[in-house]
């Protein structure tokens, strides 16, 4: 994995946003964002995953207009796992006393079931109070 170019990075509302995208076999485009929020005791990365019929619906907007089936979901799961690995290889974060946490939220119950099914087997835990799954990776 090339650490220099692994994900694209922009600044939005004072936060770093790491993102990547891929064109699926359906000609729709999948986009995954990891928005970094630096808190007193942790680095929190919020995941946003979207499928769009139009390439213009990217980092500036998070509009999900498409359906992708398993192809996009498997791609997103693999990107999350790659991002975890990249964060731990990134020396300034892994040596920090702050926790590194990744959280995934959902729009509806159908997505919640899919995300929980896919990610709990990789160490993610359900937080019923904040309606998310999360993992502390250090």
Sum up the structure in keywords.
25% helix, globular, 3 helices, seven-stranded mixed sheet, 7 strands, 138 residues, alpha+beta
- Helix and strand content put the structural class at alpha+beta
Helix count, per DSSP? 3
Net shape: globular
Helical residue percent band:
25-40%
Low-confidence spans: none
What integer value in Å does the Rg equal? 15 Å
Assembly state of the chains shown: single chain
Sheet of most strands = 7 strands, mixed
Spatial strand arrangement across the major sheet: 1-2-3-4-5-7-6
Q: How many DSSP-defined strands?
A: 7
Arithmetic mean of pLDDT: 82
| Straight-line distance between termini | 20 Å
Order of helices and strands: EEEEHHEHEE
Strand content of the residues, in percent?
A: 35-45%
Describe the structure.
This protein has 3 helices and 7 strands. It is globular and about 45 Å long. It is 25% helix and 36% strand. The longest helix has 20 residues, at 70-89.
């Amino acid at each position: 994995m090339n650490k220099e170019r692994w994900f694209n990075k922009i600044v939005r509302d004072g936060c770093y946003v790491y993102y990547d995208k891929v064109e699926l076999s359906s000609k729709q485009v999948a986009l995954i964002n990891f928005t970094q929020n630096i808190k007193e005791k942790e680095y929190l990365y919020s995941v946003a995953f979207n499928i769009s019929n139009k390439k213009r619906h990217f980092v500036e907007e998070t509009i999900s207009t498409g359906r992708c089936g398993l192809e996009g979901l498997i791609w997103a799961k693999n990107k999350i796992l790659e991002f975890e690995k990249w964060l731990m290889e990134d020396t300034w974060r892994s040596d920090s006393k702050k926790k590194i946490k990744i959280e995934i939220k959902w729009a509806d119950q159908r997505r919640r079931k899919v995300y929980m099914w896919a990610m709990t087997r990789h160490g993610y835990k359900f937080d019923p109070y904040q309606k998310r799954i999360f993992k502390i990776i250090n």
